[in-house]
Amino acid sequence: MLSACSHAGIVNARLGAMDAFPGLPVDLVPGGYHLAGAAMERLMESTADDLFRRASPRIVAPGHCTGWRAMAALAGAGFAGKAPSSAGARYRLQEES
C-alpha cells in the first residue's frame, strides 16, 4: 500500500485498503504519514499504536511529512521492520519463513 501525504490518516488509509482487499496482507506501507508539527504531536503515539495493532503492516516506511518525533514513535511500536521512504527508494520483500 502506497500513501501520499495522509491527511486522512495513515491508519484510515490502511483500514480502507483492508476493506477493499479482504484477506490480502500488506507487508509495506511507504509514504507520508503527515504527523509532523505541533498540532499533530498528540496523535503520534496513538497513531503508531493503532497502525501496529489494527492495521498490521510488517514494515513501515514513513516519508518526510511524518516528522522525526513520529518516526521515533513508530520505531518503538513493534513493527518487524522500518525503512525510510524517499524518491527512488527500492524495497526488497521476502516471504517470512
Mean of all residue-level pLDDT scores: 87
Q: Termini distance?
A: 22 Å
Tally of helical runs:
3
Give the low-confidence spans: none
Q: Give the total of domains.
A: 1
Briefly say what this structure is.
The protein has 97 residues and is an alpha/beta fold. 32% of the residues lie in helices and 10% in strands. The chain has one domain.
What would you say this structure looks like, in words?
This protein is an alpha/beta fold and 97 residues long. It has one domain. Helices cover 32% and strands 10% of the residues. The protein is built from 3 helices and 3 strands, in the order H-E-H-E-H-E. A 3-stranded parallel sheet has the order 1-2-3, with helices on one face. Helix 1 packs parallel to helix 2 and helix 2 packs across helix 3.
